[in-house]
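Can't paste images in this forum, so I'm doing it all in text. The chain is below; anyone willing to post the predicted C-alpha cells underneath?
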Amino acid sequence: MEYIAGESREQDVSGEQVDKMLAMMKMYGIKGGDLGKSKELMNALAYFAVTGDSSGFKEADSGRALNPAVWVGISLARWLMNHLPHNKKNREMKEFMNNLGAILPENEDLKRLIKGEKELDEESKKKALETLSKITNQYKIFNGLEGDISAGLGENVIMMEFLKQRKKAMEIGLYRYAGENSKEVLKLAETNKNEFEIMLERKIIRAAMTKKDVNDININTNEGQMVLKEYEYFAKIVTVKLGGKWEDVKDKWNKADFFMISEEGLGSGYKPAGFRGHFYNDRITVFKGDMIVEFRRANVDPEDDKKFGTIAPNLYGMSPMNREGKSFTVNGVTYSDYFAMKLSNLNTGKGTNECDIPQCPYVNKGINPRADKPKDQPSWALRGVLGHPGGPTYNWSEGCQTIYKDDYKTFMELFWDGSLNGEQGGYRYDLKGYYFLLTQ
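Text version of the structure:
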C-alpha cells in the first residue's frame, strides 16, 4: 500500500481494528454520514483500521481533527491482492459474485467495484457501497451483532468487515443449522458443506436486500418458488439434526391451515432508541394459502436469557387464542384482548390445543442452554409459550416469540375472515398450524 508520506509497506489486517475503529467513531460521535462529507476523515479511519496507527488524527481546539499527512486510497481489488492469498481471494470473491448474481442479477455496479474498475463514476460507486454495507450488516446481524456499517466508511473498511463477518457467519451458520455432527447431518439431508454455504450466503444476501419490514411474496411466482425452496432446504437440515423425518414434517406443512418458520439473525436488526435486551434481529415467516409473509422485526429470544427460559429449536403445534386483558397500541389505535398464538409440544400427545409445554425435546428439556439459572430454579419448565407483539423498549418476552407491535397488526390480519359473523368479519380461532423454530 502507498501513502502520501512516502512509505510503502504491507501489513496483515486484524478484524479487531475494524471493531476499534467503530468504537472510536462512537466515542467521538462520528456518524457514517459525516464520512461522506470528509474524505480525509474517511481515509484516516481507514488507515487506522488497516494499520492500527492513530497518527491520522490530532487533537484540535474544535475537538478531534485530522492529520492530513495520512492518506489511504486503494481499490477493493488491490486491497484483496495485498491481504488475501491469491487462490483464496479468487475463490472467496468468485463465490460471493456468483451468489450475488443469483439474488441480485442486476447489480453490476457492485461487481465492478469489487473488480476495481477505475471508470466507475461516483454515483455508481456510492450505490455499490450502499449495497455492500447492507450485506455486511446482515452478516453482522446473523452473527449476533448490530448492523452499524455505513457506506461512508469507505470501500477498504467495508470490505475488511465484510470478509471477517462472512467467514464467521459460515462457521456459525453450519453449527446453528446442522449441529456438531454437521458432515453427517448434511449427508443425511442429501446436501454437502459447499452447497450449504452457497445457500446460506444467498439467504443472507436476500435478507439484506429485502426493503420492507413485512415482506409478502406470492408462492406461485418465480420468486415465491425460489424462496420456498430456500426455506425447505434449511428446514430439512434441521429436521435431520433433530432426528426427525423430513417427509413427516413436509406432510404436516402441506396439510396445516398455516405453517410458521422462525430463524435467528435473519431479521432487519431493528433496535428502537433506548431498547434493552434482545432486539429485533430475527425473522418469523408465515406460510398461509398462496402467500409467504416474512416479518423481519421479530425476536425468538426472551428479553433476558439469564433470567428467563426459552423454547429450543423444534417443531411445535400452534393454534390461535384470544389474549384477554392484554393490549398494544399502534399509531394511536389500541388493540385490546388481541389475537395471539399459543404453542404446544407435539411429543406430549396432548394435541395442538394445549398451551402447556412441560419440556422441549432434544435440547436441554426446554431450558435455555445459555441460561445458568432461568427464572426461579434451574429445572424451571416453560409454560404458556405464546406468539404475540413485542414492544418499543424491550421485546415483552419471558420466553415467547414476538413480532414488533407495529407489524403485528399485519400478522393478525392474515387470520381475519370478512365472511364471519354475518359478514361483520372475525378472526379464525378454529385454525390449526405448526411453528418450526429452526435456529435460536
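The chain has three domains: 15-66, 76-176, 210-437. The longest helix spans residues 155-178.
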